[in-house]
């Protein structure tokens, strides 16, 4: 007679199935057969006395009960991992799953993650880049780093830094301006969702709002940067992103005494996740490394 599968294994299998949306994909991740993964799901449903997922030939979706169980399963698994980490005598290890914003996640944050992996070779980092809002519970990630507010009040949110932003243009389009209102005669390249038809600029206690005509809008900072370099319009961009362009003269600071509103870099994670050593070490590294980037300051 086969031995019953332990409860943590059932929960771990269920969580991976939910994350992948597929029993076969979860089985591959876990190194078990599809039949075993399916049996784990059925066993958990039998023990809880409720269906957790609706299966069809081509898809799998959690039931309402499944969504609730998934949140509790992740909390239990995180608690177990934290317990193991606290009492382990060896290196920090395991899977650290991070959702990061595209621009910072391709550059500054990647450098921090690479250094962390070099310091802790037993750590496996799962690095996902996404600017749009995500549902962290569905992804099964440990934390979500986001520029701007985090639209999920079920998560713990901490500030990691403040991003300086300025109005820039290619020198062929315009030279430095004397007053913000002069920018309203120039075409605006807008970055969604931060800039629409109006831009608030600050100079100390002074505040000036301008409304240049929008001729190009995008949700991708790399595309915005490329169009700005072409001379097609003015754009609000982070200082850290354009510092080299400013130094090389490819872009100019249109209003050196004025700055667009700073954006906050936040990190969000489920309650209790900070007990994980691997997450705590990563966040310490980010909090130490991010303010070293020109144009990004420590939280006020």
Automatic annotation (TrEMBL):
PROSITE patterns: HTH_LYSR (PS50931)
Recorded superkingdom: Bacteria
GO molecular function: DNA-binding transcription factor activity; sequence-specific DNA binding
Pfam families listed in its UniProt record: HTH_1, LysR_substrate
GO terms for biological process, alphabetical: DNA-templated transcription
UniProt key word DNA-binding: yes
Keywords: DNA-binding, Transcription, Transcription regulation
Residue ranges of domain HTH lysR-type in the record: 6-63
Protein family per UniProt: Belongs to the LysR transcriptional regulatory family.
Protein name: LysR family transcriptional regulator
